[in-house]
Write a structure and sequence with these properties.
This protein has about 110 residues and is mainly beta. The chain has no helices and 12 strands.
């Protein structure tokens, strides 16, 4: 149930979000994983445009709202993930939806 936020082939580094709903909300106890199949070593994490830290396991559970990106050195920055902390949110699945698809929406508070 991992879901990349960028289309296949668009970027080498992908920021994976679990659970796979958008927008991402802090109270979902979400996990971010920085993935690049060709990279080795730890990811460098960015929060709100500033270098935020290095995690040798390349994944962590989010505890603060903000905009996150990761870098796997030679592969470049991932697309950003914005994590909200609002009282009410309408969420949709992260996978691509086409006209006519049946979709489940989450209205959460």
């Amino acid at each position: 149930s991992w879901c990349p936020l960028s289309p296949a082939g668009a970027q080498t580094t992908q920021l994976l979000v679990e659970p796979p709903w958008t927008p991402a909300v802090l109270w979902d106890k979400m996990t971010l994983t920085c993935q690049d199949l060709g990279a080795t070593g730890a990811a460098i994490w960015y929060k709100d445009g500033q270098r935020w830290g290095q995690n040798r396991h390349n994944r962590f559970t989010v505890t603060e709202s903000g905009t996150y990106m990761c870098d796997r050195f030679s592969s470049g920055l991932s697309l950003p993930v914005r994590v909200l902390d609002g009282p009410l949110v309408l969420q949709v699945p992260m996978w691509v939806l086409l006209e006519g698809d049946t979709v489940t929406l989450h209205c959460r508070r």
